[in-house]
Design brief:
By secondary structure, the protein is α/β, with parallel strands linked by helices. The chain has 2 domains: 240 residues, Up-down Bundle (ABC transporter transmembrane region fold), CATH 1.20.1560; 267 residues, 3-Layer(aba) Sandwich (Rossmann fold), CATH 3.40.50.300. The protein is built from 23 helices and 13 strands. The chain has a 6-stranded mixed beta sheet, with helices on both faces. Strands 1, 2, 3, 5 and 6 form a 5-stranded antiparallel beta sheet that branches. A two-stranded antiparallel ribbon has the order 8-9. The chain is elongated, with a radius of gyration of 35 Å. About 6% of the residues have low confidence.
Length: 610
């Protein structure tokens, strides 16, 4: 994969219009500093050396005050431009992170910890502020003002100019040495922060489970360890920062002391220079070193920011292809549904097909699996199928023992995974040729654990809408899904607030809410991962009636565990150890496939292992 230009370079390219403004402000600031020193030296010369009357220097002092005011305004303007650059850069970077997550495939978004991604999108991007608000303005000042001061110093007193020229390089040299170490420490710090954020969020989400299994104390220790690791990384950076400050101060004090000693010898011993010149140079020298010292501090902040930006870059550089981690896909995908994220999860597609009669996805399409093959990693589980045809409006059940590849096949059919070989044809055209947005507009995927967002019932149902919808349509979808009986008992009905993740709702109520989304969407293809597993008999019957109603206008493909669901299917696909062994109707498979008959017998006695 060719390396792209760095994120900092991209942001600096977008900030080009601000760089000339920074240069002009820095040049003006340098002129103001030199003018202020010259005016102050002249005022002191007249008042204390020439014993001039105060009235004769009033105008000079007025000009001095005006120059000081201009200097303050220019310094403020420089900082303001830096803040504006930082705000723009952070907005762009955060937008890039969100766009990357939005356009990534569904499996790739499941890699890593949610807390870590949140930490990068918020904390790491915020940390980049100092690079643009402090580092860039200070570097521009350091590139212009010290040179201006150096030129004036050489004109006034060459010896001092040579001292400045000799001692000044020690500051940037030390900055580079410290900065290289700071950058590595900063990257370590943000890795620790991402780990801590991920661990903390995971612990909050699984707090009930941890308490039930008596693991809360162990998780507390794990969080404490992550917190202490982050503290140590932060303190390591502060240690470098304090060392940096001490060394810079030492260099500055030593250099100013050498200049002051040289000026005193020239002025008092050799009497080779005037008080005005000596005082002017003595005023300019601290300004010279202070600028370099401030640049050193800003450089440290900038290198710290670079570590944060590098974490953002790593997220943006991650390939958006499908994850090969079986656990992340098989486990995590069961908590999400296409209805919830069809506008965010992306699968790489070719050019958009023109919708005609043969490719009209608004009605149940015909589908064909043509020798699909998929493997998560070399020498691991491998899925293989033959050629199977699905007619429009059919109910397809995928059955098999646990680990046989049922959910993987469902994800391949949904377009959430890309096969290594073979083709999935939809209305005679390969699925890879369909525009992803168009495809997901006509697909609903309902899992055993659909995600419920923090919001009202109506807001959660409206997620399934393709466009603008009315309140009546939302309530009709809720009624068809069997939600009306629940909302009628609530004071605010469909406007009742539901907690994040569906807190306060039972498993069956979450499933009904997910079905309401599907009723609102009216998809042509419905994918189920047996949503009735684990529910009580009454709730299961309510859901089965709703599912049957929804399936009348769609092709339905279900990972089936219930005998009732299997028997009602028009076609059954039997999976065993990753291989699609056979397909047919229930009675046909009972007669010709011993493994299927054995599985059904187990279900009648106690249930298929899902």
């Amino acid at each position: 994969m060719p390396r792209k230009s760095s994120l900092i370079s991209q942001q600096m390219s977008s900030q080009r219009k601000n760089m000339p403004l920074l240069a002009i402000l820095s040049l003006g600031l340098g002129t103001a500093i030199v003018s202020q020193a010259g005016l102050l030296a002249e005022a002191v010369q007249r008042i204390f050396v020439e014993r001039a009357s105060f009235s004769s220097v009033i105008m000079l002092l007025g000009i001095l005050l005006a120059v000081m005011a201009v200097r303050t305004l220019l310094s403020y303007g420089n900082g303001k431009v830096g803040l504006r650059m930082a705000a723009t850069a952070k907005t762009n970077m955060r937008a890039a992170v969100l766009q990357n997550l939005t356009h990534a495939s569904m499996p790739s978004t499941l890699r890593g910890q949610t807390g870590g991604k949140v930490s990068i999108a918020l904390d790491a991007v915020d940390e980049a502020d100092s690079y643009f608000s402090q580092y860039m303005p200070r570097m521009m000042e350091a590139a212009i003002i010290p040179i201006l001061i150096l030129v004036v110093t050489f004109i006034q007193h060459a010896n001092t100019g040579f001292i400045l020229l000799f001692t000044a390089p020690f500051i940037p040299l030390f900055m580079i040495l410290v900065g290289l170490k700071t950058k590595n420490k900063s990257e370590e710090k943000y890795a620790q922060l991402a780990e801590f954020s991920g661990t903390f969020l995971d612990s909050l989400q699984g707090l009930v489970t941890l308490k039930i299994f008596g693991r809360a104390h162990r998780q507390q220790q794990k969080i404490e360890h992550s917190s202490l690791s982050y503290r140590d990384a932060t303190m390591g950076i502060l240690k470098i920062a304090f060392t940096n400050t001490f060394m810079l101060e030492s260099i500055v004090m030593l250099s100013i002391g050498i200049v002051a000693l040289e000026l005193a010898i020239q002025l008092l011993v050799f009497k080779s220079m005037t008080f005005h010149t000596a005082f002017l140079v003595l005023l300019l020298v601290p300004e010279f070193y202070n600028l370099l010292k401030n640049t050193g501090t800003a450089f440290h902040s900038g290198r710290t920011s670079m570590g944060a930006v590098r974490k953002v870059e790593q997220m943006l550089e991650e390939p958006a292809g499908e994850s090969r981690d079986a656990n992340s896909i098989e486990g995590a995908l069961t908590t999400v549904g296409i209805n919830e994220i069809d506008s965010m999860d992306r699968v790489e597609r070719g050019s958009k097909l023109e919708i005609g009669n043969s490719n009209d996805l608004s009605v149940p399409p015909s589908m064909e699996i043509d020798h699909l093959q998929f493997q998560y990693a070399p020498d691991s589980f491998k899925l293989e199928t033959g050629r199977i045809q699905f007619n429009p409006g059919e109910h397809i059940a995928i059955v098999g023992k646990s680990g046989s590849g049922k959910t993987t096949l469902l994800h391949l059919i949904a377009g959430l995974l890309k096969p290594e070989s073979g083709t999935l044809l939809v209305n005679g055209s390969p699925l890879s040729q369909y525009d992803e947005t168009e495809w997901f507009e006509h697909v609903s995927y309902i899992t055993q654990h659909p995600y419920i967002f923090a919001g009202t019932f109506s807001e959660n149902i409206a997620i399934g809408a393709r466009g603008s919808i009315s309140r009546a349509e939302i309530e009709r979808a809720g009624e068809e899904a069997g939600l009306t009986a629940l909302t009628a008992q609530l004071e605010h009905g469909f406007d009742t607030f539901v907690g994040e993740g569906g807190r306060g709702l039972s498993g069956g109520e979450k499933q009904r809410l997910a079905l309401a989304r599907a009723f609102l969407k009216r998809p042509a293809i419905i994918l189920f991962d047996e949503p009735t597993v684990g529910l009580d008999l009454h709730t299961e019957r309510v859901l089965q009636r709703s599912i049957a109603k929804l399936a009348k206008t769609a092709t339905m493909i279900t990972v089936a565990h219930r005998l009732y669901t299997i028997q009602q299917a028009d076609k059954i696909l039997f999976m065993d150890n990753g291989v699609l062994v056979d397909s047919g109707q229930h009675e046909e498979l009972l007669g010709r496939l011993p493994q299927y008959a054995e599985m059904i017998d187990v279900e009648r006695k106690g249930g298929i292992s899902s």
